[in-house]
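Entry 14: structure prediction run for EthD domain-containing protein. Input pasted below.
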Amino acid sequence: MARTIMMVFTNPRSAEQEAEYNAWYNQVHLKELLDVPGVVAATRYRVAEGAGTTEPSHRYVALYEVEGEPAAVFGALATRTADMSMSPALDTEGAQVVFWEAIDGGSLSR
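Run finished. Output tokens:
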């Protein structure tokens, strides 16, 4: 089975909590997600300032590479969420989780 990408779009609750949010996400949360069966890699991104793109609703996205059935990985993630160290700096209500599967023939590289 091909790898799937799980994208998690998030924001800090406020600008004042942004440093706390980033420290927690990088030092705690990424490691917790890598402990979920099926999650094999994690990378975070933020909006590139001045790139001339439309302002998105979320300033941060985490990309998780997933091996296995996405529903099973999401189920394992949901089961573990209650035991994770969630930060009060994370806007949990605005977060969005989306799984993406590769399109056959839709990949090129140099």
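Notes: The chain has a mean pLDDT of 92. Will compare against the previous run tomorrow.
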